[in-house]
Design brief:
The protein has 282 residues and is α+β, with helices and mostly antiparallel strands. Among the domains are: 13-70, no CATH class; 75-184, Band 7 domain (Tetrahydropterin Synthase, Chain A). The protein has 7 helices and 10 strands. The strands form 4 sheets. It has a 3-stranded antiparallel sheet with strand order 3-2-5, covered by helices on one side. The termini are far apart.
Length: 282
Amino acid sequence: MGKLSSEGKAIVSGVVVVVVALMLTISGFVLFEKINNGNVGIEYSMNGGVKKQTLSQGVKFVGFNKVTQYPVRLQTVKAKKLNLATKDGKATHVSITYSYKVDPTKVTSIYKEFGSIPVTDIESGWLKSQLLKSGRNVMAEYSLLEVTGKDSTKVQNAILVDFQKAAKNKGFLIEDLSFGVPDVDEKTKDSIDAIIKAGQDNDRAKLEAETKQTKANANAKAKIVDAEGEAKANIATAKGEAKANKLISDSVTDNLIREKEAQARVKHGWVTTQGVSGVITK
């Protein structure tokens, strides 16, 4: 074979460079794994099984091992519409949204439990079934009127607590849960609206009655206070008059009477009365 020309050598060299670059690029995708921000990775080796040490965020060399990522940051699962029945047998459709994250200390056990499936599959599978179970357990303890009325917050909190207990055992930490207004058929909805309106009318009438009673009590109390004030004033006046009369009485002595009598005689003379007709002597 003849020697390659310089042009042929250049072509061969170019092909080698392209092949090497292509192999390096492929190796980069195959041998390295990028762990997304807020996630941890579980590495699985065909020879050694699951590695206990998790992979933190960033690009990691994993060779030909399989990597599954789990979120340790907060994730929000948008409304799941669940069919739930109340204590009085009313069927409802309830939208529930919840937030969760994976317990970093249990990611290995999660992988062993669920395998290499992505966490989104766990959300739509196991987590959804547990949420449904918790919802049914709680809703069965309340009537439809309670669920749609004053006890709706209690129902929401009860579902959250029950769901938290079930999920925590597997390594999922449920942080929050929101409970939407249950959807019911039109007939049931009309009945609920009528009951709520009747309750509101009753509360309004009760409030008005209480207000009238409060005003009546206030007026009665005011009259009592006025009467007590008037009575006290009369007593004070009577005591003042009695005290004044006593002072006058105490001041009228025999000597004072004789002195006043003498002054009168000096001024007016004597007055003598005899028989039927009086004789006035000055």
